[in-house]
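Recap quiz, item 2
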Amino acid sequence: MLGRILQLLLKEFLQLKRDKSARLRLLIPPMIQMVLFGYAATFEVFDVSTVILDLDRSQESRALIDAFVHSSRFRIAVPAASEREVRDAVETSDAQVGLVIPPGFAELLRKGRTAPIQALVDGTNSNTALIALGYVGQIAGSFSQDYARDLAQRTGRLQGKPMVSVILRERYWYNPNLNSRWFFVPGVIGTLALITIVNLCAFAIVREREVGTLEQILVTPIRPVEFIIGKTLPFFLIGLMEVAIVASVGMLWFRVPFRGNPFVLLLGTCLFLLAALAIGLLISTVCTTQQQAFSSNFFVLNPLFILSGFSFPIASMPPALQYFTYIDPLRYYLVIIRATFLKGVGIEALWHQMLALAIIAFVLLAAAVLRFRKSLD
Amino acid sequence: MNGAARIVVDRLVKRFGDFTALDGVSFEVAPGEIMGFLGPNGAGKSTLIRILCGLLHPSQGRAQVAGIDVAKDPEAVRTRIGYMSQKFSLYNDLSVVENLRFFGGIYGVGRERIDARVTEAVSMAGLSGREDTLVANLAGGWKQRLALGAAILHRPPVLFLDEPTSGVDPESRRRFWDLIHTLGGEGISVLVSTHYMDEAEYCHRIALISGGRLAALGTPRDIKRLGKEAGAEAAEPTMEDAFVALVGQAQGGRAAA
Ligand SMILES: Nc1ncnc2c1ncn2[C@@H]1O[C@H](COP(=O)(O)OP(=O)(O)OP(=O)(O)O)[C@@H](O)[C@H]1O
Ligand SMILES: [Mg+2]
């Protein structure tokens, strides 16, 4: 068993060493992605998931919350009961924005003084965060204008200053300058690993099918599991290497900080790579030519990328589409990779994602092994 | 040749959907016998060989290779057969020796034997001194002989060769057939399909397949005699004449039926 797997491994590495186009396939996508996302565009966002903590419980605070509820930009999840809940929601990415209305909010307003509210944003997704923060400012601004006009009519006094100001709390500011590179570099690592691994794996098998060597291998006593392990292990190792290299480039060149535990990232990466390999394997079982594999890859990878939340926030997607994001391994890996890089959170905060990845990888791998029969029927 | 047959094919049927590619084929092959498969394109030669290798499931009928039922235990069959598919199937981007070591390895040839077997295969292919050449850089004849060497690294008692010499020059084809006869002499049963009439003459027996059925079965001399009976006009019909007459008869018979 081990002998046969080793033979396949050796062969695969020899072929890779000699295959110039495979080396290009490994190098070109990272370059293009890095450049593309370096100029990452901004997108409109809707339905930013938001938690609000109202510690004032006044007419004014409720009016402000209403203003948020009635805008299409924010989707208010359950109101939080404590500051801790707000912080946890943002930390685990359940919410992208947290708003805290401190006690005394209404009192300050009534006295005509500036009343701060606090906003926590999930800076790991700087794109959404920046845009969402803009909306918070707008809504607070128009609320404060309305209130000032109201107050002026009642008291005859005119205010110079805006009445509600938004204060950002540094503590939860994972990406203080909302540096979009900090956001895109971890994302690129994930998408790249997905694209290269699915491609390499699918092509490696489909090429053998196309040239006829697969038929030759099928008549040997090799077992399907041995073949699959021998054929995919090299790409698993390559995937790990690629993640390490791109991550190093991100840290050294783009100066993205790594605040978390490398072993948590390693675990997530392994699970994610297994899922990617399984996708490649499944593609290879339905395609007989490299041409077919190419278009299948395209049709599988694009949705995975779009549904992952990398460039379009999941919360802004139509609800029907949001359900599909749950079966997208990249969705979970992006959370893991951003969280380990930028937030430095440990496995406790990420076990949901780990579990989801493990389940996806297991189901897909099992399907691939079952589908890979040693016959041409 | 009165030992138990190495290959037993009994009323074998293979359907692909509505299409019947093999329609009740029966024959036996003895140890050391070289059996040729002759037939027009699409006759079902490759399909039959693939069933015997356990790559396709028979729809009906029975096939035994080296005493094992191919439908029931394809894995056991695989340790006892060598196979060269119709497509060339070595790795072009690996060297001569790398290919041989790879196939030897996945056939389970032990570490203590692999070196000797590889050397033997290299010299059989006439590639001594070119062990490290990439297969892509070899000419057709050498490639085919190397593929044959790779197919017998595990010393199988049965060998299936699907058009092994297509696209190869006559001199290389002759050398290839010398090798086949050497293997037959060692007791290996060889089942080989071909399009070349002259190669049919080198076989002990020929199975003429047409439209998924056995149109004729016998020694080259039998086939020519049957061809004459089927209406070949020449006084001494060549294999080609016999082939045309017998295939015509088989197709006419089916059309009439
Ligand atoms: N997987 C398949 N699905 C459907 N039809 C098939 C399949 N494999 C073979 N056939 C059909 O079965 C018939 C026999 O094919 P086969 O390859 O066995 O012929 P052959 O005698 O080897 O021909 P050639 O000399 O061209 O190699 C052909 O008509 C072919 O189209
Ligand atoms: Mg054929």
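Residues 232 and 241 of chain B are 6 Å apart (CA to CA).
Chain B touches chain A through 31 residues (CB under 8 Å).
End of item.
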